[in-house]
Amino acid sequence: MNFIAFCPPYASHLRAFKALADGLSARGHGVTFVMPGRFDVPWTGLCPQVLHVGTEVEDTTRSAIERSVWRTDTLCRSIDALPPADAILGDQTEPASGLIADALGLPLISIACALPFERGAGIPLPFLGWPFDDSRRGLRRNRGGERIARLILRQQNAVIAHWADRFGIGPRRELGDCLSPLLTLSQTLPGFDFPRSHSVIVETGPLRAAGNEAFPADIEPDPSRPFVYASLGTIQGHREAILRKIVAACHRAGAQVLVSHAGGLSEQAARDLGATWVREHVPQEAVLDRADLCITHAGLNTAMEALMRGVPMLAIPIAYDQPGVAARLVHHGVGLRHSRRWLDTGSLSRSISRLLTDATFRDKARSFGPGGGVPLAVARIEDVVTPARQLVAAQ
């Protein structure tokens, strides 16, 4: 079978799609990545084929929403340039995947590289840090959040409605109307999401190639003291003020702390943090294998990697779906959450000490085993697409 893949140019999303494409290729399937505009894909190993559509260069000075609208519009304008395919793999953040799949009559597989967007009773939108609540009050609150989201995303919703009308596929008014009715592959570990029923979501855990990076030879944690790993991810590593408070709180709690800042800090700023160790990049999974606690921005990848190793977390969410991930960490009793706007060393230190001494957090974190990963994802895709193709052929 041949697949078209629509994925936004974000390294973590492309990494998941690349692993999935490799898994499908190993089964004899073909995958073509379709990327809008003329720019370098920020993932050098993207294979086996990339098709660029449109001639305009993405304007990075625009807001994230404006860039998303431009990508969706460019992809939909290029529908006639797409290669023949049996199905579409679409990142949930790219509504063009659902619009084009319906226009071409192809089965769509949605990929949730962040928290899934599917609605559910009591489940707030992914970027909201609210708890699960299916009471009347909770449902009313969630509807309010959805109304605000529609206002914020009115540009995106307008381009969705425009292309749905142009394609003649019936009304589509928002991102939720562009998701797969057949299958969503979520990088959440089984059981991590809030309770759902009658869902097309399959929780595969992280989609990635097997890693074998070793723990840094120049970092030697003292086994008599707790070892804390702190990272705000690849985009937020420049937040020096937050990292300073994390480091001071770890020292107050008697812990060693390794900070990874992903190139967000200058050499001088990194030295001034006062952490036990500071690195631009580390082999995160190898570090988490040794860590007693992870202090994180609650990015989904980091959270899942920590849970796979039974490591509790202190979450300081900043943007995107991170508040929603943090809410789920608290819901499952595997971590604590602090607001980045009200951080102080004393409260951070108390939370760090609690997470390090209360075995309940680690015991609950250890209840999450590894997901099925790429093999499970590939099997589910084949299970769904093969019957869908046979149905179309019969018609």
Protein model, in words:
This protein is α/β, with parallel strands linked by helices and 395 residues long. Helix 1 packs across helix 13 (373-394), helix 2 (64-77) runs parallel beside helix 5 (154-167) and helix 3 runs parallel beside helix 5. The model has no long low-confidence stretch (mean pLDDT 91). It has helices at 11-26, 64-77, 96-104, 136-152, 154-167, 240-252, 267-272, 284-290, 300-307, 322-331, 345-357, 359-365, 373-394, and strands at residues 2-6, 30-36, 49-53, 87-91, 108-112, 183-186, 201-203, 227-231, 256-260, 277-279, 293-296, 313-315, 335-337. The strands form 2 sheets. A 7-stranded parallel β-sheet has the order 3-2-1-4-5-6-7. Strands 10-9-8-11-12-13 form a 6-stranded parallel β-sheet, sandwiched between helices. It contains 13 helices and 13 strands. Helices cover 39% and strands 14% of the residues. It has 2 domains: 2-206 and 372-394, Rossmann fold (3-Layer(aba) Sandwich); 227-365, Glycogen Phosphorylase B (Rossmann fold, 3-Layer(aba) Sandwich). It is globular, with a radius of gyration of 22 Å.
Number of domains: 2
Rg from alpha-carbon coordinates: 22 Å
Work out the helicity level. 25-40%
Structural class: alpha/beta
- In CATH terms, what is the fold-level topology of the largest domain? Rossmann fold
Order of strands across the main sheet? 3-2-1-4-5-6-7
- Looking at the structure, what is the overall shape? globular
Report the strand count.
13
Largest sheet: 7 strands, parallel
Mean pLDDT: 91
So how many helices? 13
For the record, the CATH architecture of the largest domain stands as 3-Layer(aba) Sandwich
**Main CATH class of the largest domain:** Alpha Beta
For CATH, the homologous superfamily of the largest domain is named as: Glycogen Phosphorylase B
Low-confidence stretches: none
Distance between the termini: 19 Å
Strand percent estimate: 5-15%
SSE string, helices as H and strands as E: EHEEHEHEHHEEEHEHEHEHEHEHHH
